[in-house]
Amino acid sequence: MDVRDLHEWPSTPEEAEKIQDGLRPLLNLAGPGPAAPRTVAGLDVSYADGSDRLVAAVVVLEVATLETVEESVVAGTAAFPYVPGLFAFRELPTLVEALRGLTVTPDVLVCDGYGLAHPRRFGLACHLGVLTDLPTFGVAKTGFVGTYDPPGDERGRTSPLTDSGEVVGRVLRTQDGVRPVFVSAGHRIDLDTACGLTLAVCPDYRLPETTRRADHLSRQALRDA
Fold first, then answer.
1. What domains are defined for the chain?
2. For residue 132, which of 78, 88, 186 has the smallest C-alpha distance?
3. Distance between CA atoms of 126 and 121, rounded to whole angstroms?
4. For the chain, where are the E strands, in sequence order?
5. CA 130 to CA 168: how far, in whole Å?
């Protein structure tokens, strides 16, 4: 699939922040997103213990059946130091190569991370959304920015995630009585659609099948290497 080359990869935090600031105006959060997506892709990265070696994995699933359509795995090295708010730059080059390895273009991308729920309102899901121009959102295991009230204990219950008076995401209970996840829009999708699709790909577990399978694939590739 196609991924646009919109910038060079940065070498300093100042360069990375400038890229985020330059791409942020390209975000499109006005539309509801796809009404009935047929395929959805999960993206995840695993790191080798004690090193910057990593593996990026993309798994494309059919939404209706959750059957795997295609997989793409690329090994690489973290391309940027760890800086809060700029973590995406460590993984983006390898994730982009994994996406380019797909022969199909999924209808939606689901990132293991954040979209607008980010200090600079430009997390990994926003960045990948702009580069691919696909509907993209993030489902994170833990909160990063903002405050919220715990949602109800039943599957599907939500509460707003707010930061500096702005709603930047939604806290979603994907299974009865389990810890919630943190959903934030990235590009060309709204929170209602993102949360509905998250529930659709979370039939049995707390985390989406997109994330679970991409995580398994990347970890297996690390072990094999």
1. 13-224 (3.30.2170.10)
2. 186
3. 8
4. 39-47, 53-62, 68-77, 108-111, 136-140, 158-163, 166-172, 181-187
5. 18
Site of tokens 């309102």: 121
Q: Could you tell me if 209 and 201 are in contact, meaning their C-beta atoms sit under 8 angstroms apart?
A: yes
pLDDT digits (tens, 9 = 90+) for 106-154: 999 999 999 999 999 999 999 999 999 999 999 999 999 999 999 999 9
* CB 111 within 8 Å of CB 137: yes
Rounded CA separation 20/78 (Å)? 18
**Residue that has been written with the tokens 């809060």 in this structure:** 84
**pLDDT tens column, 73-99:** 999 999 899 999 999 999 999 999 999
Q: What are phi and psi of 97, to 5 degrees?
A: -65, -35
* pTM (predicted TM-score): 0.95
Separation between Cα atoms, residue 179 and residue 136, nearest integer Å: 23
Instruction: Show the tokens assigned to 214.
Output: 């991409």
Q: How far apart are CA 195 and CA 200, in angstroms?
A: 9
C-alpha torsion sign, points 200, 161, 211, 136: positive
Tell me the CA end-to-end span of the chain in Å, nearest whole number.
Answer: 25
- Give the whole-angstrom CA distance, residue 18 versus residue 16: 5
Burial of 177 from C-beta contacts in 10 A (0-12 / 13-18 / 19+): exposed
Q: Count the helices and strands in the chain (H runs, E runs).
A: 5, 8
Note the pLDDT of residue 35.
83
